[in-house]
Amino acid sequence: MKSGEFLVIGAGRFGQALATTLYDLGHSVVVVDRNGALVEDIMDRVTHALIADATEEETLRELGVEAFDRVIVAIGTDFEANVLATVNAKACGAKYVISKATSAVMATVLSRVGADEVIRPEHDMGIRLANHLTTPSIVDAFNLGDDYSVVEVEAGEKLNGPLSESRLPNRFGVQVIAVNRDGDLTISPRADFEVQRGDRIVVIGSVEAVNELRDYLSKDSSEE
Ligand code: ATP
Questions:
Q1: pLDDT score at 2
Q2: Which of the listed residues 8, 13, 78, 125 should we mutate to test ligand 1's pocket, taking the one with most ligand atoms within 8 A of CB?
Q3: CB of 20 within 8 A of CB of 45?
Q4: Exposed, middle or buried, 36 (CB in 10 Å: 0-12/13-18/19+)?
Q5: Contact 147/179 with Cβ under 8 angstroms?
Q6: Could you give phi then psi for residue 21, rounded to 5 degrees?
Q7: What parts of the chain have a pLDDT lower than 50?
Q8: Is 12 close to ligand 1, i.e. is its CB under 6 Å away?
């Protein structure tokens, strides 16, 4: 992504990690928190940090929320503050607001009041860890809508060799989108692409197809 402008509201553990990582990746990041000590702590690690109450419309207007590519409301515990910051950011013209929810109810409310995207970090991390624990070779997984999944699989014994030999589309109905070798991406690799141990293969397929692949990967070779 080209260099973007981000506004992070709330410098708790999640907001801090988000803001400093975006900054380290070369983006412009403004952080707002009502807690002065937290603002002071993060000040040198982002573009700009200021003490303010983000539930106030006036504050958001002064910040120029409409100019940011993304506004992330990273307030968890104070639900009311999160809803107000989300609603007011949208009312002030924010292009795209991502709000953090700590429960399913909170996620529904935030979507209804206008959040463009709602994330549930604890919930999502729980799903990822469950995927990884049950199938260690699955490094990451997420759903696209209700019907499709994308998974990143670390190639071990089973997927070693040319893609044409693992025949993933024929056997499981999944398509290989990319192979990541130490950060070097090969997009839409050809059938003769030689997969090496440790490569990360990104595949897409229906939830059922991906589950079949998952079953296959979680079995010991000796069980087949
Ligand atoms: P963590 O990311 O640490 O898990 P959390 O989900 O517990 O955080 P909170 O601690 O509720 O979330 O909020 C994160 C930050 O948001 C806190 O530093 C808090 O000071 C800040 N915050 C809460 N309400 C407001 C507000 N109205 N304006 C600005 N910042 C706020």
A1: 66
A2: 78
A3: yes
A4: exposed
A5: no
A6: -70, -45
A7: 222-224
A8: yes
